[in-house]
Specification:
quinone; EC 7.1.1.-; ubiquinone
Length: about 325
């Protein structure tokens, strides 16, 4: 009975984080962009510091008419937003936030699980583009798939370097094996992993598939109302997952300069929030890449860097073991 209660409590905690943190990131993005670019609207909704902006957005999406194109495959069209969103909920179950088994479910092959499940998200975009009965949506979905497939490999290689260094595929095991001198040694892999993650989320400057100057809004052109909001929520949930994974794999997760294990969850949260700010900062700082530049970055820059990081890890492991 106690085991069932413990499992239920962990699942409820993961679900609450899944519902709350993406919305917090979305609200933060409104405010950060408002300050960086002098946007007035998000700073006035509701009065004090625009606190009601997120509420206004939610009401707006709820009021919009739910339209399904006449020629669309209705079931696939309606299912696509859930397929894009749910993988991030499953990934959160395996991400440790603190010591002493503070994780939804510890997995022996945690890295393989999170990367495999995150890759399922591409099916949501493909389903949305194909089922919309719109050639622009289909083209946007194919470009999204091409981008995600290109950046999946450097992301996997960068994560493999950390697993090799720690000698385990378990996420809690990687954090327990972490040493602070890993940071300068694995920094290249961390940059590759974070950059590839941004591209998989189609975040600027990698938002070519959904850029309004290219193909309207890509695979999501025909979506309205709450279904469109689910795709946006998937993006913000992806930011939470990417930042949390980067902090776990490359920044020591719950390890901090002081506070001991009791504040482990706080250090994980702080690192995740700082990385989320970097994601927002990159959006308002750099212009988007062209399609050819986007693919070139993946195949000629990130993949060679990830392979070099693996080679360096192998050399360091041999030197340490000898």
């Amino acid at each position: 009975m106690s085991d069932a209660f413990d499992i239920a409590l962990r699942l409820v905690a993961v679900f609450v984080v899944f519902l709350v943190f993406p919305l917090v990131i979305g609200q933060t993005e409104h405010k950060v962009m408002a300050h960086m670019q002098g946007r007035l609207g998000p700073m006035y909704a509701g009065g004090f510091h625009g606190w009601a902006q997120l509420v206004a957005d939610g009401v707006k999406f709820a009021q919009k008419e739910d339209i399904v194109p006449a020629g669309a495959d209705r079931r696939i069209f309606q299912l696509a937003p859930a397929v894009a969103l749910l993988p991030y909920l499953l990934v959160l179950v395996a991400i440790p936030i603190g010591p002493h088994n503070a994780v939804g479910q510890a997995l022996d092959a945690g890295i393989f699980f999170v990367l495999a499940v995150m890759g399922v998200g591409v099916l949501g975009s493909l389903m949305a583009g194909w089922a919309s009965a719109n050639k622009f949506s289909l083209l946007g979905g194919l470009r999204t798939a091409a981008q995600l497939l290109a950046y999946e490999l450097p992301m996997l290689l960068a994560a493999a370097s950390v697993a090799m260094a720690a000698g385990t595929l378990s996420l809690p095991g990687i954090i327990e094996a972490f040493h602070w001198w890993w940071v300068p040694w694995q920094i290249v892999g961390g940059v590759v992993f974070f950059t590839a993650g941004l591209a998989e989320l189609q975040r600027p400057p990698f938002d070519m598939p959904v850029a309004d100057s290219e193909i309207i809004f890509g695979a999501y052109t025909e979506y309205t109302g709450l279904r469109f909001a689910l795709f946006l929520l998937a993006e913000y949930a992806g930011i939470v997952v990417l930042c949390a994974l980067t902090s776990v794999l490359f920044l020591g997760g719950w390890h901090g300069p002081f506070g001991g294990d009791g504040l482990g969850w706080l250090w994980t949260l702080v690192k995740t929030v700082i990385l989320a700010f970097v994601v927002i900062w990159l959006r308002v700082t750099y212009p988007r890449l062209r399609e050819d530049q986007l693919q070139k970055l993946a195949w000629t820059v990130l993949i060679p860097l990830a392979l070099a990081q693996i080679a360096l890890t192998g050399v360091v492991k041999v030197v340490i073991s000898s």
